[in-house]
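hey
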């Protein structure tokens, strides 16, 4: 099984080259309207958030629109991309949560601004920072955006990691059961005892470094 770290690394390369799909096979929805060109204000905001130059933004945008004339990546295309990264894994839970944080306007597709807002964080120049993986996971599974991972949100997080790693169902018992992993996460990371994890608690480097089981689960699977 590949580690979650390597999976996220694969994901970054996949997302950064997501526009390599053949447009002849693209799917369009009558419920999704084509986007217009970038405004100067949008370009300036992207430059500020990503440290890209205006020239780089325009070049990437032209490449994006060449492959996606409507300027949108459909949910189906996105899932196809992740299936290429993890061809032998069940990507549905992970893909659903990742798509949800990318599709910020909830129109059922990913536009260029939404696309680049995440991919710059997964740039290979910064991918060695383990906190990037953990922060991404936190944001993905904090579905109500209240700044905490509740017990009900930790369950799909654990299941998604198992699915990506290809852990068979018959091995998800005992210490490897979803319930046991969620309980361990809360026991080790929930410092104030409120039975949920804040982002600060989830990203606590000292806790990760001192707990072999957590390190194995998130970085060796």
């Amino acid at each position: 099984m590949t580690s979650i770290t390597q999976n996220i690394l694969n994901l970054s390369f996949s997302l950064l080259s997501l526009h390599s799909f053949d447009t002849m096979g693209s799917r369009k929805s009558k419920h999704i309207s084509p986007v217009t060109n970038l405004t100067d204000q949008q370009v300036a905001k992207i430059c500020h958030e990503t440290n890209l130059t205006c020239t780089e933004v325009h070049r990437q945008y032209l490449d994006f629109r060449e492959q996606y004339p409507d300027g949108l990546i459909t949910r189906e295309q996105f899932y196809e991309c992740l299936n290429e990264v993890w061809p032998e894994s069940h990507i549905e839970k992970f893909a659903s949560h990742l798509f949800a944080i990318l599709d910020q306007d909830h129109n059922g597709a990913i536009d260029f601004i939404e696309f680049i807002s995440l991919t710059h964080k997964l740039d290979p120049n910064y991918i060695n920072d383990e906190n990037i993986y953990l922060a991404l996971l936190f944001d993905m599974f904090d579905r109500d955006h209240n700044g905490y991972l509740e017990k009900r949100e930790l369950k799909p997080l654990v299941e998604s990691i198992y699915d990506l790693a290809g852990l068979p169902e018959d091995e998800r018992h005992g210490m490897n059961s979803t319930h046991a992993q969620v309980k361990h996460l809360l026991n080790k990371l929930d410092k104030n005892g409120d039975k949920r994890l804040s982002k600060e608690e989830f990203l606590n480097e000292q806790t990760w470094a001192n707990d072999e089981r957590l390190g194995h689960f998130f970085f060796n699977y």
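The beta strands are 72-74, 109-111, 148-150, 196-198. Residues 151-165 form the longest helix (15 residues).
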